[in-house]
Amino acid sequence: MEQNNQSKSAFVAIVGKPNVGKSSLLNLLLGEKIAIVTSKPQTTRTRIMGVLTKGAVQFVFLDTPGFHKAKTKLSTTMRRVVTTSIKDVDIVMLVVEPRGALTESELSLIENIKAAKIPAILVINKTDLYADKSVVAERIAELTALYPFDAVVPLSVAEKKGTDALLSELTNYAEEGEHYFPDDTLTDQPERVIAAEIIREKLLLFMQQEIPHGTAVIIEKMREREDRPILDIEATIYCEKASHKGMIIGKGGQSLKRIASAARADLESFLDTKVNLQCWVKVREDWRNQESMIRNFGLSDDS
């Protein structure tokens, strides 16, 4: 679409500790699921870009991994992705919950925002969980005492409330100029990457807590059949221990079938076509501490 002189764009980083609803917020803003969502930490591993064009204004959102203490080379990379993203945008959205002690990670994020000297909006998610609005007010007072946020937006992703106010605030930081992406762009993520993430989401949802964090998914093949409207997808699930491989596959292959079946349903919805999904499981011991494997799995921050 041809742009005019009033076109504006804003690059926005979405940051916060794990499980505050960053990816859910991105999906709600875009009206489409491009970031996987579970209740487990480390669901988001890389920076995911989502693009929303509303009239003359284009928002480019960067959904970042939950900021947490690094225990492996992979988690060190994830922390670096967050701090780099803060420096690369026009404005930062710090997403927090209404109640609970502030974590070391959240305090560190505020320090990073201070150091970057960048505009920041405080987003209080999950307000639907507290009928007593004084809870939200107390949280706002606590955080604004630590940093002079440019705006504060309470919202509820679960109830789909508050996003209009958030977009209104973000519009103030959009700069004039041509849009960076075509107006119908949703994300810069290739379909193969989104497909791999959908499969990993099902691993996180269905498996024991210690197993999914040590898994990665690679799409080996994605090809449309010439004779029928069917997309053949072949995926390899990598895990760190032989015992984990057995658990992922399950007795008689039942666990893997359940994971693949749920993933296939989401893939068909996202890709709008019938999908034939085949999954295999392989072991790569301690891959999260191997730089070469992290790069091979597309999780490095040097791209």
UniProtKB/TrEMBL annotation:
<feature type="region of interest" description="G4">
    <location>
        <begin position="125"/>
        <end position="128"/>
    </location>
</feature>
<keyword id="KW-0699">rRNA-binding</keyword>
<dbReference type="GO" id="GO:0003924">
    <property type="term" value="F:GTPase activity"/>
</dbReference>
<feature type="region of interest" description="G5">
    <location>
        <begin position="155"/>
        <end position="157"/>
    </location>
</feature>
<keyword id="KW-0342">GTP-binding</keyword>
<dbReference type="InterPro" id="IPR004044">
    <property type="entry name" value="KH_dom_type_2"/>
</dbReference>
<keyword id="KW-0690">Ribosome biogenesis</keyword>
<dbReference type="GO" id="GO:0000028">
    <property type="term" value="P:ribosomal small subunit assembly"/>
</dbReference>
<dbReference type="GO" id="GO:0005886">
    <property type="term" value="C:plasma membrane"/>
</dbReference>
<dbReference type="InterPro" id="IPR005225">
    <property type="entry name" value="Small_GTP-bd"/>
</dbReference>
<feature type="domain" description="Era-type G">
    <location>
        <begin position="8"/>
        <end position="176"/>
    </location>
</feature>
<dbReference type="InterPro" id="IPR005662">
    <property type="entry name" value="GTPase_Era-like"/>
</dbReference>
<feature type="domain" description="KH type-2">
    <location>
        <begin position="207"/>
        <end position="285"/>
    </location>
</feature>
<dbReference type="GO" id="GO:0043024">
    <property type="term" value="F:ribosomal small subunit binding"/>
</dbReference>
<feature type="binding site">
    <location>
        <begin position="63"/>
        <end position="67"/>
    </location>
    <ligand>
        <name>GTP</name>
    </ligand>
</feature>
<protein>
    <recommendedName>
        <fullName>GTPase Era</fullName>
    </recommendedName>
</protein>
<keyword id="KW-1003">Cell membrane</keyword>
<dbReference type="InterPro" id="IPR009019">
    <property type="entry name" value="KH_sf_prok-type"/>
</dbReference>
<keyword id="KW-0547">Nucleotide-binding</keyword>
<feature type="region of interest" description="G3">
    <location>
        <begin position="63"/>
        <end position="66"/>
    </location>
</feature>
<comment type="function">
    <text>An essential GTPase that binds both GDP and GTP, with rapid nucleotide exchange. Plays a role in 16S rRNA processing and 30S ribosomal subunit biogenesis and possibly also in cell cycle regulation and energy metabolism.</text>
</comment>
<dbReference type="InterPro" id="IPR030388">
    <property type="entry name" value="G_ERA_dom"/>
</dbReference>
<dbReference type="GO" id="GO:0070181">
    <property type="term" value="F:small ribosomal subunit rRNA binding"/>
</dbReference>
<dbReference type="InterPro" id="IPR015946">
    <property type="entry name" value="KH_dom-like_a/b"/>
</dbReference>
<feature type="region of interest" description="G2">
    <location>
        <begin position="42"/>
        <end position="46"/>
    </location>
</feature>
<dbReference type="Pfam" id="PF07650">
    <property type="entry name" value="KH_2"/>
</dbReference>
<feature type="binding site">
    <location>
        <begin position="125"/>
        <end position="128"/>
    </location>
    <ligand>
        <name>GTP</name>
    </ligand>
</feature>
<comment type="similarity">
    <text>Belongs to the TRAFAC class TrmE-Era-EngA-EngB-Septin-like GTPase superfamily. Era GTPase family.</text>
</comment>
<keyword id="KW-0694">RNA-binding</keyword>
<keyword id="KW-0963">Cytoplasm</keyword>
<dbReference type="Pfam" id="PF01926">
    <property type="entry name" value="MMR_HSR1"/>
</dbReference>
<feature type="region of interest" description="G1">
    <location>
        <begin position="16"/>
        <end position="23"/>
    </location>
</feature>
<dbReference type="GO" id="GO:0005829">
    <property type="term" value="C:cytosol"/>
</dbReference>
<dbReference type="InterPro" id="IPR027417">
    <property type="entry name" value="P-loop_NTPase"/>
</dbReference>
<dbReference type="InterPro" id="IPR006073">
    <property type="entry name" value="GTP-bd"/>
</dbReference>
<dbReference type="GO" id="GO:0005525">
    <property type="term" value="F:GTP binding"/>
</dbReference>
<feature type="binding site">
    <location>
        <begin position="16"/>
        <end position="23"/>
    </location>
    <ligand>
        <name>GTP</name>
    </ligand>
</feature>
<keyword id="KW-0472">Membrane</keyword>
<comment type="subunit">
    <text>Monomer.</text>
</comment>
